Amino acid sequence: MKSKNKIEQIFSNGANKRAFLIKSPAFITYLTGVSFPYPYQSPFLIALVGNGSDGQSTLIIPVEWDGIVNEWNGKVLTYSVNDGGPGGAYLKKVIETLESCSDFKQSLSLDYESWTVREIKALQQKYPKLKITNCSDEINLARMIKNEKEIENLRQAAIIADRGLIGAFNHVEGTVTTVCYTLSEFLERVRVHAIEFGANWVGDLNLSQGKDGSAWYTPITDFSVVEEGNMIRINYSLSVNGYWCVSNRTVFAGNPGKEDLAAYQANQKLVKYAESLLKADVKISTFCSKVQQQAEKEEIQLLADFGMGHGVGTSEYEMPFLTIDNSETLKEGMVISMGLKTLGKMNEIIISSDIYLIKSDGYEKLSDFVNWDDIYLINGVRFTH
User: Fold this and answer.
1) Cα–Cα distance list, 250 to 23, 215, 228, 231 (Å)
2) Is the entire prediction scored with pTM above 0.70?
3) pLDDT by residue (tens digit) across 271-283?
Protein backbone atom coordinates (compact mmCIF):
# COMPACT_ATOMS: atom_id res chain seq x y z
CA MET A 1 0.00 0.00 0.00
CA LYS A 2 1.44 3.37 -1.00
CA SER A 3 1.28 6.11 1.59
CA LYS A 4 -1.18 8.09 -0.55
CA ASN A 5 -3.60 5.16 -0.52
CA LYS A 6 -3.85 5.47 3.25
CA ILE A 7 -5.20 8.97 2.79
CA GLU A 8 -7.68 7.78 0.18
CA GLN A 9 -8.74 4.88 2.40
CA ILE A 10 -9.80 7.21 5.20
CA PHE A 11 -10.84 10.47 3.55
CA SER A 12 -11.97 9.40 0.06
CA ASN A 13 -14.21 6.53 1.11
CA GLY A 14 -17.50 6.43 -0.82
CA ALA A 15 -19.77 9.38 -0.20
CA ASN A 16 -17.79 10.43 2.89
CA LYS A 17 -15.24 12.50 0.96
CA ARG A 18 -14.16 15.55 2.91
CA ALA A 19 -11.44 18.07 3.59
CA PHE A 20 -9.00 17.11 6.33
CA LEU A 21 -6.43 18.81 8.52
CA ILE A 22 -3.95 16.68 10.50
CA LYS A 23 -1.40 17.92 13.05
CA SER A 24 -0.22 14.84 15.00
CA PRO A 25 3.32 13.83 13.88
CA ALA A 26 2.40 10.17 14.44
CA PHE A 27 -0.63 10.49 12.16
CA ILE A 28 1.28 12.46 9.53
CA THR A 29 4.11 9.91 9.43
CA TYR A 30 1.54 7.12 9.10
CA LEU A 31 -0.35 8.85 6.27
CA THR A 32 2.65 10.16 4.30
CA GLY A 33 5.61 7.96 5.16
CA VAL A 34 7.63 11.06 6.09
CA SER A 35 9.33 11.14 9.50
CA PHE A 36 10.50 14.34 11.13
CA PRO A 37 13.37 15.03 13.57
CA TYR A 38 12.17 15.04 17.19
CA PRO A 39 8.72 16.40 16.22
CA TYR A 40 7.27 16.25 19.75
CA GLN A 41 10.21 18.12 21.28
CA SER A 42 10.64 20.66 18.49
CA PRO A 43 9.07 24.15 18.55
CA PHE A 44 8.25 23.63 14.87
CA LEU A 45 4.73 22.57 13.89
CA ILE A 46 3.62 20.53 10.88
CA ALA A 47 0.28 19.85 9.21
CA LEU A 48 -1.25 17.75 6.46
CA VAL A 49 -4.09 19.41 4.55
CA GLY A 50 -6.10 17.84 1.77
CA ASN A 51 -9.20 16.96 -0.24
CA GLY A 52 -10.95 13.65 0.07
CA SER A 53 -12.59 14.03 -3.34
CA ASP A 54 -9.35 13.91 -5.32
CA GLY A 55 -6.90 12.53 -2.74
CA GLN A 56 -4.65 15.56 -3.17
CA SER A 57 -2.85 16.71 -0.05
CA THR A 58 -0.28 19.25 1.06
CA LEU A 59 2.37 19.07 3.77
CA ILE A 60 2.97 22.27 5.70
CA ILE A 61 6.41 22.34 7.29
CA PRO A 62 8.94 24.90 8.57
CA VAL A 63 11.40 26.03 5.92
CA GLU A 64 14.20 24.44 7.97
CA TRP A 65 12.77 20.97 7.24
CA ASP A 66 12.28 21.46 3.51
CA GLY A 67 15.00 18.97 2.60
CA ILE A 68 13.62 15.94 4.45
CA VAL A 69 10.43 15.34 2.48
CA ASN A 70 11.96 14.24 -0.82
CA GLU A 71 10.04 10.95 -0.87
CA TRP A 72 6.67 12.65 -0.40
CA ASN A 73 4.70 12.63 -3.66
CA GLY A 74 2.32 15.43 -2.68
CA LYS A 75 2.67 19.18 -2.50
CA VAL A 76 4.91 20.84 0.11
CA LEU A 77 4.49 24.36 1.49
CA THR A 78 6.89 25.97 3.94
CA TYR A 79 6.54 28.76 6.48
CA SER A 80 9.11 30.88 8.27
CA VAL A 81 8.95 31.52 12.00
CA ASN A 82 9.97 35.11 11.21
CA ASP A 83 6.48 35.64 9.79
CA GLY A 84 4.52 35.87 13.03
CA GLY A 85 6.45 33.49 15.29
CA PRO A 86 6.22 29.67 15.25
CA GLY A 87 2.50 29.50 16.10
CA GLY A 88 1.30 32.53 14.17
CA ALA A 89 3.17 31.78 10.94
CA TYR A 90 2.05 28.16 11.09
CA LEU A 91 -1.63 28.97 11.59
CA LYS A 92 -1.55 31.57 8.82
CA LYS A 93 -0.18 28.99 6.36
CA VAL A 94 -2.75 26.40 7.48
CA ILE A 95 -5.66 28.77 6.82
CA GLU A 96 -4.25 29.82 3.44
CA THR A 97 -3.93 26.19 2.40
CA LEU A 98 -7.41 25.25 3.62
CA GLU A 99 -8.98 27.95 1.49
CA SER A 100 -7.46 26.36 -1.61
CA CYS A 101 -9.16 23.01 -0.86
CA SER A 102 -12.26 22.46 -2.97
CA ASP A 103 -13.83 20.23 -0.29
CA PHE A 104 -13.41 22.87 2.40
CA LYS A 105 -16.73 24.68 2.62
CA GLN A 106 -18.60 24.12 5.85
CA SER A 107 -17.05 20.90 7.10
CA LEU A 108 -13.55 19.92 8.16
CA SER A 109 -12.23 16.66 9.60
CA LEU A 110 -9.24 16.98 11.94
CA ASP A 111 -7.42 15.16 14.74
CA TYR A 112 -9.11 17.28 17.39
CA GLU A 113 -6.94 16.27 20.36
CA SER A 114 -3.78 17.53 18.63
CA TRP A 115 -4.97 21.13 18.30
CA THR A 116 -4.75 23.85 20.93
CA VAL A 117 -7.74 25.89 22.10
CA ARG A 118 -6.19 28.94 20.43
CA GLU A 119 -5.94 27.17 17.08
CA ILE A 120 -9.50 25.84 17.18
CA LYS A 121 -10.85 29.27 18.14
CA ALA A 122 -8.92 30.87 15.27
CA LEU A 123 -10.56 28.49 12.80
CA GLN A 124 -14.02 29.06 14.28
CA GLN A 125 -13.62 32.84 14.23
CA LYS A 126 -12.44 32.76 10.63
CA TYR A 127 -15.21 30.35 9.60
CA PRO A 128 -18.13 30.72 12.07
CA LYS A 129 -20.29 28.19 10.19
CA LEU A 130 -17.53 25.61 10.04
CA LYS A 131 -18.52 22.13 11.20
CA ILE A 132 -15.54 20.33 12.72
CA THR A 133 -15.51 16.54 13.02
CA ASN A 134 -12.90 14.42 14.77
CA CYS A 135 -11.09 11.84 12.59
CA SER A 136 -8.66 10.53 15.25
CA ASP A 137 -10.59 7.31 15.83
CA GLU A 138 -10.70 6.56 12.10
CA ILE A 139 -6.94 6.98 11.77
CA ASN A 140 -6.23 4.96 14.92
CA LEU A 141 -8.36 2.08 13.63
CA ALA A 142 -6.70 2.15 10.21
CA ARG A 143 -3.14 2.19 11.50
CA MET A 144 -3.61 -0.95 13.59
CA ILE A 145 -2.92 -2.97 10.41
CA LYS A 146 0.64 -2.56 9.14
CA ASN A 147 1.94 -2.90 5.58
CA GLU A 148 5.26 -4.50 4.62
CA LYS A 149 7.28 -1.28 4.84
CA GLU A 150 5.90 -0.51 8.28
CA ILE A 151 6.63 -4.04 9.48
CA GLU A 152 10.25 -3.76 8.36
CA ASN A 153 10.64 -0.41 10.13
CA LEU A 154 9.24 -1.96 13.32
CA ARG A 155 11.52 -4.98 12.94
CA GLN A 156 14.54 -2.70 12.58
CA ALA A 157 13.50 -0.67 15.64
CA ALA A 158 13.18 -3.87 17.70
CA ILE A 159 16.61 -5.11 16.60
CA ILE A 160 18.28 -1.78 17.37
CA ALA A 161 16.61 -1.73 20.81
CA ASP A 162 18.27 -5.03 21.72
CA ARG A 163 21.59 -4.05 20.15
CA GLY A 164 21.60 -0.90 22.26
CA LEU A 165 21.15 -2.99 25.40
CA ILE A 166 23.81 -5.55 24.46
CA GLY A 167 26.29 -2.77 23.74
CA ALA A 168 25.66 -1.30 27.19
CA PHE A 169 25.88 -4.72 28.86
CA ASN A 170 29.30 -5.29 27.30
CA HIS A 171 30.59 -2.11 28.92
CA VAL A 172 29.37 -3.25 32.33
CA GLU A 173 30.76 -6.79 32.06
CA GLY A 174 33.93 -7.17 34.05
CA THR A 175 32.99 -4.36 36.47
CA VAL A 176 30.26 -5.95 38.61
CA THR A 177 32.73 -7.23 41.22
CA THR A 178 34.57 -3.92 41.54
CA VAL A 179 31.59 -1.75 42.53
CA CYS A 180 32.52 1.10 40.20
CA TYR A 181 29.94 1.33 37.40
CA THR A 182 27.15 3.77 38.22
CA LEU A 183 23.56 3.08 37.21
CA SER A 184 23.35 6.48 35.51
CA GLU A 185 26.38 5.64 33.36
CA PHE A 186 24.84 2.25 32.55
CA LEU A 187 21.63 3.87 31.37
CA GLU A 188 23.51 6.49 29.36
CA ARG A 189 25.38 3.67 27.58
CA VAL A 190 22.02 2.21 26.53
CA ARG A 191 20.99 5.52 24.96
CA VAL A 192 24.32 6.09 23.21
CA HIS A 193 24.54 2.58 21.78
CA ALA A 194 20.98 2.67 20.47
CA ILE A 195 21.83 5.87 18.57
CA GLU A 196 25.10 4.38 17.33
CA PHE A 197 23.19 1.43 15.90
CA GLY A 198 20.71 3.65 14.04
CA ALA A 199 17.96 4.94 16.36
CA ASN A 200 16.63 8.37 15.44
CA TRP A 201 15.22 9.11 18.89
CA VAL A 202 15.69 7.54 22.33
CA GLY A 203 13.80 8.35 25.52
CA ASP A 204 11.76 7.21 28.52
CA LEU A 205 14.84 5.53 29.97
CA ASN A 206 14.49 3.80 33.32
CA LEU A 207 16.68 1.35 35.22
CA SER A 208 15.74 -0.63 38.34
CA GLN A 209 18.05 -2.78 40.46
CA GLY A 210 17.24 -5.35 43.12
CA LYS A 211 14.43 -4.62 45.58
CA ASP A 212 14.00 -1.11 44.12
CA GLY A 213 12.53 -2.85 41.08
CA SER A 214 9.28 -3.47 42.96
CA ALA A 215 8.29 -0.03 41.62
CA TRP A 216 7.84 0.35 37.87
CA TYR A 217 9.47 3.78 37.61
CA THR A 218 12.66 4.30 39.61
CA PRO A 219 14.48 7.56 38.82
CA ILE A 220 18.20 7.54 39.61
CA THR A 221 18.87 10.28 42.16
CA ASP A 222 22.36 9.39 43.44
CA PHE A 223 25.59 7.66 42.44
CA SER A 224 24.39 4.10 43.05
CA VAL A 225 26.45 1.47 41.25
CA VAL A 226 25.76 -1.87 39.61
CA GLU A 227 25.87 -4.47 42.38
CA GLU A 228 26.46 -8.17 41.92
CA GLY A 229 23.60 -10.50 42.84
CA ASN A 230 20.70 -8.36 41.61
CA MET A 231 18.05 -8.42 38.95
CA ILE A 232 18.34 -5.34 36.73
CA ARG A 233 15.41 -4.14 34.61
CA ILE A 234 15.86 -1.63 31.79
CA ASN A 235 12.94 0.13 30.10
CA TYR A 236 13.27 2.53 27.22
CA SER A 237 11.80 3.47 23.87
CA LEU A 238 13.26 4.44 20.52
CA SER A 239 12.17 5.22 16.99
CA VAL A 240 13.59 4.34 13.58
CA ASN A 241 12.23 6.23 10.57
CA GLY A 242 9.29 7.35 12.69
CA TYR A 243 8.40 3.83 13.91
CA TRP A 244 8.75 2.87 17.55
CA CYS A 245 9.87 0.07 19.81
CA VAL A 246 9.13 -0.07 23.54
CA SER A 247 11.85 -2.20 25.13
CA ASN A 248 11.61 -3.88 28.54
CA ARG A 249 14.32 -6.38 29.49
CA THR A 250 15.34 -8.00 32.79
CA VAL A 251 18.90 -9.28 33.25
CA PHE A 252 21.08 -10.39 36.17
CA ALA A 253 24.36 -8.95 37.45
CA GLY A 254 26.68 -11.82 38.34
CA ASN A 255 25.56 -15.41 38.86
CA PRO A 256 21.93 -15.95 39.93
CA GLY A 257 20.82 -18.28 42.68
CA LYS A 258 18.10 -20.90 42.37
CA GLU A 259 15.32 -18.53 43.43
CA ASP A 260 16.32 -15.91 40.87
CA LEU A 261 16.53 -18.49 38.10
CA ALA A 262 13.18 -19.99 39.07
CA ALA A 263 11.51 -16.56 39.07
CA TYR A 264 12.75 -15.73 35.58
CA GLN A 265 11.91 -19.20 34.27
CA ALA A 266 8.37 -18.84 35.64
CA ASN A 267 8.00 -15.56 33.77
CA GLN A 268 9.18 -17.10 30.51
CA LYS A 269 6.98 -20.16 30.97
CA LEU A 270 3.97 -17.88 31.20
CA VAL A 271 5.18 -15.91 28.17
CA LYS A 272 5.41 -19.13 26.14
CA TYR A 273 1.84 -19.96 27.08
CA ALA A 274 0.70 -16.47 26.04
CA GLU A 275 2.56 -16.83 22.73
CA SER A 276 0.69 -20.06 22.04
CA LEU A 277 -2.56 -18.06 22.08
CA LEU A 278 -1.40 -15.29 19.76
CA LYS A 279 -3.04 -15.42 16.34
CA ALA A 280 -5.62 -13.61 14.26
CA ASP A 281 -9.30 -13.82 15.26
CA VAL A 282 -8.53 -14.31 18.97
CA LYS A 283 -10.57 -12.00 21.20
CA ILE A 284 -8.23 -9.85 23.31
CA SER A 285 -10.31 -10.19 26.48
CA THR A 286 -10.25 -13.98 26.08
CA PHE A 287 -6.49 -13.94 25.54
CA CYS A 288 -5.88 -11.92 28.71
CA SER A 289 -8.31 -14.02 30.73
CA LYS A 290 -6.61 -17.27 29.72
CA VAL A 291 -3.16 -15.90 30.60
CA GLN A 292 -4.42 -14.82 34.03
CA GLN A 293 -5.99 -18.23 34.62
CA GLN A 294 -2.75 -19.95 33.64
CA ALA A 295 -0.78 -17.74 36.04
CA GLU A 296 -3.13 -18.71 38.87
CA LYS A 297 -2.85 -22.38 37.93
CA GLU A 298 0.97 -22.19 37.95
CA GLU A 299 0.94 -20.02 41.11
CA ILE A 300 2.82 -17.25 39.31
CA GLN A 301 2.33 -13.71 40.61
CA LEU A 302 1.18 -11.84 37.51
CA LEU A 303 0.70 -8.06 37.54
CA ALA A 304 -1.92 -7.33 34.90
CA ASP A 305 -3.63 -4.17 36.17
CA PHE A 306 -2.11 -2.14 33.33
CA GLY A 307 -2.53 -4.78 30.66
CA MET A 308 -0.20 -7.23 28.94
CA GLY A 309 0.82 -5.17 25.95
CA HIS A 310 -0.23 -2.78 23.24
CA GLY A 311 0.21 -1.92 19.60
CA VAL A 312 3.31 -0.14 18.30
CA GLY A 313 3.74 1.89 15.15
CA THR A 314 4.26 5.59 14.57
CA SER A 315 3.75 6.07 18.31
CA GLU A 316 5.02 4.14 21.32
CA TYR A 317 1.58 3.08 22.53
CA GLU A 318 -1.33 2.61 20.18
CA MET A 319 -4.28 0.32 19.52
CA PRO A 320 -4.88 -2.49 20.20
CA PHE A 321 -4.38 -2.58 23.97
CA LEU A 322 -4.07 -6.02 25.55
CA THR A 323 -6.43 -5.60 28.50
CA ILE A 324 -9.00 -7.98 29.90
CA ASP A 325 -11.85 -5.54 29.20
CA ASN A 326 -10.97 -5.08 25.51
CA SER A 327 -13.60 -6.76 23.32
CA GLU A 328 -11.60 -6.20 20.12
CA THR A 329 -10.12 -9.08 18.15
CA LEU A 330 -6.52 -9.60 17.08
CA LYS A 331 -6.22 -9.22 13.31
CA GLU A 332 -3.64 -10.31 10.78
CA GLY A 333 -1.15 -7.50 10.21
CA MET A 334 -1.30 -6.05 13.71
CA VAL A 335 2.06 -5.48 15.43
CA ILE A 336 2.04 -5.57 19.21
CA SER A 337 4.48 -5.29 22.08
CA MET A 338 3.70 -8.00 24.64
CA GLY A 339 5.38 -8.48 27.99
CA LEU A 340 4.17 -10.09 31.22
CA LYS A 341 5.07 -8.59 34.59
CA THR A 342 5.80 -11.16 37.29
CA LEU A 343 7.67 -10.91 40.60
CA GLY A 344 11.12 -12.04 41.71
CA LYS A 345 12.30 -13.09 45.17
CA MET A 346 12.61 -9.46 46.33
CA ASN A 347 9.26 -8.55 44.73
CA GLU A 348 11.12 -6.89 41.86
CA ILE A 349 9.17 -6.73 38.60
CA ILE A 350 10.43 -9.13 35.95
CA ILE A 351 9.52 -8.47 32.32
CA SER A 352 10.99 -9.21 28.91
CA SER A 353 8.71 -7.79 26.24
CA ASP A 354 8.90 -8.66 22.55
CA ILE A 355 7.43 -7.32 19.32
CA TYR A 356 5.02 -9.63 17.48
CA LEU A 357 3.44 -9.54 14.04
CA ILE A 358 0.03 -11.21 14.22
CA LYS A 359 -0.63 -13.79 11.49
CA SER A 360 -3.58 -15.99 10.58
CA ASP A 361 -1.87 -19.09 11.99
CA GLY A 362 0.11 -17.55 14.84
CA TYR A 363 2.74 -14.83 15.00
CA GLU A 364 6.18 -13.76 13.83
CA LYS A 365 8.56 -12.35 16.42
CA LEU A 366 10.15 -9.20 15.04
CA SER A 367 12.47 -8.72 18.04
CA ASP A 368 14.56 -11.76 17.17
CA PHE A 369 18.11 -10.38 17.46
CA VAL A 370 18.69 -12.16 20.80
CA ASN A 371 16.92 -15.10 22.42
CA TRP A 372 15.79 -14.00 25.89
CA ASP A 373 14.36 -17.38 26.98
CA ASP A 374 17.19 -17.70 29.51
CA ILE A 375 18.13 -14.80 31.73
CA TYR A 376 21.00 -12.71 30.38
CA LEU A 377 23.97 -12.66 32.76
CA ILE A 378 26.17 -9.59 33.06
CA ASN A 379 29.49 -11.14 34.01
CA GLY A 380 32.79 -12.16 32.43
CA VAL A 381 35.25 -9.79 30.81
CA ARG A 382 34.70 -6.26 29.58
CA PHE A 383 34.39 -5.30 25.91
CA THR A 384 34.25 -1.90 24.25
CA HIS A 385 31.03 -2.75 22.35
Assistant:
1) 37, 14, 14, 7
2) yes
3) 999 999 999 999 9
